[in-house]
Amino acid sequence: MNRWKINYERWLKAFFILLIFVFCLWSIGGLDRVKVVSDEFAYWGIAASFAGYDWHDLMAATGYYSFGYSMVLTPLMLLGRLGVSMTLLYKLAIILNACFMAGQYMLTVYVMKELDLPLSGPARDTVGFFLTLYVGSTAQMDIAWTEVYLVFMFWCIIALLLRTIRKHDYLDMLLLIAASAHIFMIHMRA
């Protein structure tokens, strides 16, 4: 019986992760360009500069944006140098959003477990699923800007903080410091 319970919980987690990907990628076929021109374009422009493109004239028309999310987009821009279309690169960024949301789900479940909340495993999984797909996330998931990545990094910091408090591991402390610095690089509101 215990073995079935463990498998059931794994299957439930896999099912919720699959649903997150389905929700995130449902309309990916119609996503082929930036929606929020000033914001999204600025992050892509910084990534283009990191990848060696000369977009300085175009970037002169945008305001200042942090470069943390652009660091995530830079490998995609390097694929552009190999001939991958910008439409496909944009869709890859949306797939990254789905990965960040799946990671957020797993981190949310981990944090609830570490906090010893009085919830069973399936209840934690269900709560984590709904926390991941709250209205703010679902409104942002098909836009290639910082919001989904920012929330993912927030959960990374919470998980690392709990691990550092409980285990006093130096690697966790260093990762916590790095993640805390990186979240500020993603957006100044952090």
* Element-by-element helix/strand order: HHHHHHHHH
Largest sheet: none
Question: What's the helical proportion of residues?
Answer: over 70%
Query: How much of the polypeptide forms β-strand, as a percent range?
Result: under 5%
Task: Give me the secondary-structure topology.
Elements: H1 2-25, H2 37-50, H3 56-59, H4 68-81, H5 86-114, H6 121-132, H7 135-140, H8 146-167, H9 170-186
What this model shows, in words?
This protein has 190 residues and is mostly helical. It is 75% helix and 0% strand. The model has no long low-confidence stretch (mean pLDDT 86).
Q: What's the short story on this structure?
A:
The chain is mainly alpha-helical. Helix content is 75%, strand content 0%.
Features:
190 residues; 75% helix; mainly alpha
